[in-house]
Amino acid sequence: MADVTTVTGRGASRPVRRAVPRRPARRDGPAWVPYAFIAPALLLYGAFLLYPLVRAAQFSLFDWNGIGAAEFVGLANYVDIVHDERLREAFWHALVLVFFYAILPLCIGLVLAALLTRAKVRGLGFFRTVIFLPQVIAMVVVAVTWRQIYAPDGPLNGLLRAVGLGSLARPWLGDYTFTLPAVGLIGTWVSTGLVTVLLMAGMSRVSPDLYEAARLDGAGPVQEFFAITLPAVRGEITVALTLTIVAALKTFDLVYVTTSGGPGTSTTVPSYEVYRRAFELGEVGSAAAIGVTLTILVFIINAGVNWFGERK
Amino acid sequence: MNRSKLSAGLAGTALLVTLAACAPGSGTEEETTADAPSGEVSTDISDAGDVTLTVWDQEVRGGQDEQMSQLNDAFMEQYPNVTIDRNSQSFDDLATTLRLALTDEDPPDVVQSNNGRNTMGQFVADSQLVPLDDYADAYGWFDRFSPNTLQYSTYSEDAKTFGDGNLYGLPQVGEVVGVFYSKSKLDDLGVELPTDWTTFDDALATAKEAGEVPIQLGNIDQWPAIHVFGPVQGGSVDAEQIVDLGLGNSGASWTTPENVEAATTLQGWADAGYFNDGVNGTDYDAAWQNFADGEGVFLIGGSWLAADLGDAMQDDVGFFVPDTADGVPATTGGTGLPFAITSASENPDVAAAYIDFITSDDAMQVLADTDNLPVNDTAELAPDEGVLGDVFASFARVTDEGNLLPYLDYATPTFSDTLGQALQDLLDGRATPEEFTETLETDYSEFVSSNG
Known about the structure:
The complex is a heterodimer. Helix content of chain A is 72%, strand content 1%. By secondary structure, chain A is mainly alpha-helical. Chain A has 2 domains: 2-60, no CATH class; 78-310, MetI-like (MetI-like fold, Orthogonal Bundle). A two-stranded antiparallel ribbon of chain A has the order 1-2. In chain A, helix 12 runs antiparallel to helix 15. Chain A starts with a helix and ends with a helix. Chain B is of the alpha/beta class. Chain B folds into 2 domains: 45-173 and 336-359, Periplasmic binding protein-like II (D-Maltodextrin-Binding Protein, domain 2, 3-Layer(aba) Sandwich), CATH 3.40.190; 175-334 and 393-451, Periplasmic binding protein-like II (D-Maltodextrin-Binding Protein, domain 2, 3-Layer(aba) Sandwich), CATH 3.40.190.10. Chain B has helices at residues 3-21, 62-78, 91-102, 117-125, 133-139, 141-144, 147-150, 183-189, 197-209, 224-236, 239-247, 257-271, 284-292, 306-313, 348-358, 361-369, 378-381, 386-400, 415-428, 433-451; strands spanning 51-57, 82-88, 110-112, 154-155, 166-167, 174-182, 215-216, 298-302, 317-320, 330-335, 339-341, 403-405. In chain B, helix 2 (62-78) runs antiparallel to helix 16 (361-369), helix 10 (224-236) packs across helix 19 and helix 14 runs antiparallel to helix 18 (386-400). The radius of gyration of chain B is 24 Å and the shape is globular. The chains are: A mainly alpha, B alpha/beta. The interface between A and B is large, with 46 and 48 residues. Chain A: It is a multi-pass membrane protein.
């Protein structure tokens, strides 16, 4: 705030005015006009995002059940988050989901995008549409569909049994070891399309001359990929990671519909805990504290990703 | 001061004022101080003037919705001065919006609130609901309902005790959890219909030997197993103990040998392969549909499944509740969500008349006609045949002779999750019966001691 003030305030404007006294600073109207232009957006943004955020931060300092009087408890709700084993587990699950939502789709997406842009595939538009399709479907629909695919007598187990791998068949959403990866892979399926399409856009910008030059120098397809393609799409990778990591950390609908956090507590995630505490247990203060913590975590991780992505 | 500094300062001040001005929940405090009916209740509402009564219910499914519409129309016909503004939402939607609605500036008059401590209990503690005892005396509700039923909408004034104190709501329908069975499967196995838990166990073993799935269970959502454990617990634990445990009142314990025995029985069934494969990964709906398709001999579930199973299986499906060693049935059950009056209602007399109307003897007939399980006069209103006849008879027998045990998740605000997760652990063999009861005891005793 402070340095913004110096630039737009006295320090910046006065010398200009003094140097060109006969040509006053060009103004299209009174000083409030620029604010009037941003006001509609700012009001909406303020009313539906900033205000709720501030209120949530305020709630997080209270012990409040959502109906009665609230009691100010300072940071006690945050202290509880650190000490609550169930919550620590939930945050850990969110980080595991980051692997499935962001890292894995990025690896798959890089290979797919490189193949689709470099190889002159016929019907490229068709493949692109198919890959992107999961992004378009509502998450609840995706979750209901996969819940049936993963059912004990569902298509996945049917396929495994048909090819003689019946010993691998299991209740995918009721198995303590495999449920979190199973839920995560749904996220992979959804994210891969977005990541691939983003990366393809980036790769199509790379000049063919670069590849030709590399090939003249004797580089194979793999070397081309690491020397030219990968550095060229660093910006796209940053965007893709930012979007998918946010999606991973705020996962709610997928877990709510597929497992409700089970079996046991093996797939609970922070957003689900927010819902559970606010609406089922009536611990609004604690729920708000988890929400705020999650928001901060999302900020930190994405600040890291962006710092890494924009580093020269 | 230059402009940016000024506006930043203003914004900051505004923020501080906002933060300091209203602690959450403080704004609505004065409005909810109820003018509680102080002995002067009126049962004559025809001269109450033109009144609009806002009712929030969750009777959205076929027969439920039908009975509600019929009764609302009949009520408005009898009292032309009253208009009912009905807001009907699914169970889950109502649960999440009711809390906000009650603290709203213009809350509904009559609401259907879940019985448990984290809903009705909290509303009572925060004086959001009107105690109905004066109305109950005036209308004779204490004679109309059995005390066994009313305890599930009764709280002390501070809501610390559940099951004793003031009456806060009246239910329309009953619910009972028991065993659905396939008649043709039992015939094929050459097994008589079990009557108690010992013969039930034998039937399970025979079914398993014959290569059938003895019990269908879909437990991906965690709560369905609560309805299996409940009746099993009713078979080995003293009913009074279960009521105290289930209502979260002090004086009971989960770690008794009887509770361990119940958990051992359930885990024994899982170990012996009496359930379908992968119970913790199976859908609740898929389980009863599989049962209806002829996969499975028994299905332990609530009376709410009877209508669908009857449609699908016709005469092949039956329903019973096994007896305990004492020769009486004891099983989980209770009532539908009770109707309560909000403290902010401007017309509590009209609201009480409405609740009286929809729980009257005539209303019970309407409920039975629309395939609902009426909470009163159940035996008289039972259909002659079909699985609904079995269900009506079982409910009447459990409430009259046996023990209708509370849903175990009423106990503490967190108990639904604790028990659901612990049961998944138990069924999976991750927890021993002893560990299972200790997990539950921790939640229960923490709550009881914090409740004072």
